[in-house]
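Listing S7. Sequence submitted for prediction.
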Amino acid sequence: MRKLGLIFASIFLLSAAAFAQTGVKGKVRDPNGNGIAKATIDARQEGQTVRTTTSDSKGNFAINLAPGLYNIGFEANGYSLGVLYKIEVKNGKMRDLGDRLILSRDRGSLVLVRGIVFDKDQFSIGGAKVELYIVNDDGSEKKVTTVFTNISGDFAFRGIDVVKKVRVKASFRGFNASKDIDVDQPEVYRTAIVLDYQRERPN
């Protein structure tokens, strides 16, 4: 009788272990490959959420599921919603989704800086170099990226997280100017920079 009890206990433990290894795992990342912490991962069947978990500080997660087909949804603050459809989970296997869970930044949560560069006669300048900096509380600055104006003198930077202040620097043929912008909330900020440059006029 004791041996029979041990056999049943062993079968139960093996079944529990098999179930514990059934499900999906992976890593939620941003487009740069960085893990996204505290992302919410939902396993859905027929439009209903059957199980939910969150990613750890490095973006990793694992969720136990019964065998079947699932749509795996994942979201995080400041990012767009992502879904992987018809993910098959097989009995006794933890399916590794790897690095397929990539979330793009939600433009509605970002600071977007756009503008135009003029010369001293208020003509737009194409091909001007424009740099974006984050201005820290102590006055120091950190460069974010560089773009060049198009033929119409316009420029646009990709979105950044909300900060207190940014600095836009423009340069063209040795002429330079900059402008500071206070950015306290996610929205599109537009600016114009005038360089003390005067193009040559035909005689």
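Caption to Listing S7: primary sequence and predicted structure tokens for the chain studied. Residues 3-19 have pLDDT under 50 and may be disordered. The chain is about 10% helix and 45% strand.
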